[in-house]
Amino acid sequence: MKLLRYGPAGQEKPGLVDKDGKVRDLSTHVKDIAGDAISPEGLKKLAALDPASLPLVEADRFGPCVAGTGKFICIGLNYSDHAAETGAKVPPEPIIFMKATSAIVGPNDDVEIPRGSEKTDWEVELGVVIGKHAKYVSEVEALDYVAGYCLINDVSERAFQAERQGQWTKGKSCDTFGPTGPWLVTKDEVADPQNLKMWLDVNGHRYQDGSSATMVYGVKYLVSYLSQFMSLHPGDIISTGTPPGVGLGQKPNVFLKAGDVIALGIEGLGEQRQKVVQG
Known about the structure:
Blueprint: E1 2-6, E2 13-17, E3 23-25, H1 40-47, E4 56-57, E5 72-76, H2 80-85, E6 95-98, E7 104-105, E8 111-113, E9 120-121, E10 124-130, E11 146-153, E12 156-157, H3 158-163, E13 178-179, E14 184-186, E15 197-202, E16 205-211, H4 219-227, E17 237-239, E18 261-266, E19 270-278
Parallel strand pairs: 5-17, 7-13, 8-19
Antiparallel strand pairs: 1-2, 1-14, 2-3, 3-4, 5-6, 9-12, 10-11, 10-17, 11-14, 15-16, 15-18, 18-19
């Protein structure tokens, strides 16, 4: 299934995409795409519905594809070719940092350049959405705890991230720095999360053209690894890193400016399009 949330910001309703690509309303069956609705049992109930029996809707806006996200966990330098372009070594263990959940916006909402920013950058990433409580899980059972996958633009302010004191979080957490969606694609529709084409354009120029095949630490490992340090809960998102082609990796560097248009996508997970505005 492709689950989504549609409507004005803060008033989104749950829905799904039918076989013809049309949006169907799920409001009479679940309150939101969150919590129990994305548990294994909840997803089974939704999968048993006949999409043709659900009301058709015209969606003017897609919201973030999952609600109730308690943790937005990001993995740094998790693509061997991206690490190489930034001059960094592949880390011996995953680099973990948090992105504030207040950064989460819809897939086509504007991206705001924060005040004082000179180095706002882009990153197409595979997102993993947790579907049930996970603690101390093994790699073998890790995918049992995954509801599905989504597309994320891990927007980053590089000067805030790396040129000032402290952790990466403040360069990753500005408002609008987490476009998420358009869909939560359930894991049964993704045969191999480690073999998905990924791309990102700015103003029609392709900067990122990669694959999750070059991910250093795969989805199973990351879910298991993170669960050794913290409980993972339904709606938590793991953003798993980016392939090469970020603005910081260009020679000379290229960073976002007001008026730019970002377009990105991952095979089977949909596409996003954002206009860049001054915050």
